[in-house]
Design goal:
By secondary structure, this protein is an alpha+beta fold. Helices cover about 40% and strands about 15% of the residues. The protein has a domain at about 10-95: Double Stranded RNA Binding Domain. The protein has helices spanning about 25-30, 45-55, 75-95, 110-125, and strands at about 10-15, 35-40, 65-70. Helix 2 crosses helix 3. The longest helix is centred in the middle third of the chain and has 20 residues, at about 75-95.
Length: about 130
């Protein structure tokens, strides 16, 4: 099992923004929320992890290959920053897992027979729904 890919903090760009939602006067004057930006292509992650991250189709990854995470759950800028880093690391950890290759299998003869019998039975039920002729 390969070592987990760690995100280096010097590769992350942070910007403090004002949080949305309720919070009274505090929310209007204090920039507590954090926008985290992480460029996948320019990072030091292994190429296989980069490839899987870009192919994941996650909505937080832009077309340019930049991960954008907004954290605003806490009142503290430091806590929001830590949460954003944790969420980025979770995304990278998920991409670091190598998917198991699928092994092709064939249906058994009994399962094929059950499938055809079920189709015949449904066909008979539907045929019986027609108009009744006297």
């Amino acid at each position: 099992m390969p070592l987990p890919a760690r995100v280096r903090e010097e590769e992350i760009e942070f910007s403090a923004i004002r949080a949305q939602g309720a919070g009274g006067q505090n929310v209007n004057k204090v920039s507590n929320a954090v926008h985290l930006r992480f460029d996948i292509g320019a990072s030091s992650l292994p190429p296989a992890v980069k490839e899987r991250l870009l192919a994941s189709g996650d909505q937080r990854i832009s077309a340019e290959g930049v991960v954008v995470i907004k954290a605003q759950a806490h009142r503290s800028l430091v806590r929001n920053r830590e949460e954003a880093i944790e969420r980025l690391q979770a995304l990278v950890d998920q991409a670091a897992e190598v998917p198991r290759p699928r092994r092709a299998t064939r249906p058994t003869r009994a399962s094929q027979r059950r499938r055809v019998e079920g189709k015949l039975q449904r066909g008979q039920v539907k045929a019986g729904r027609g108009r009744v002729v006297e």
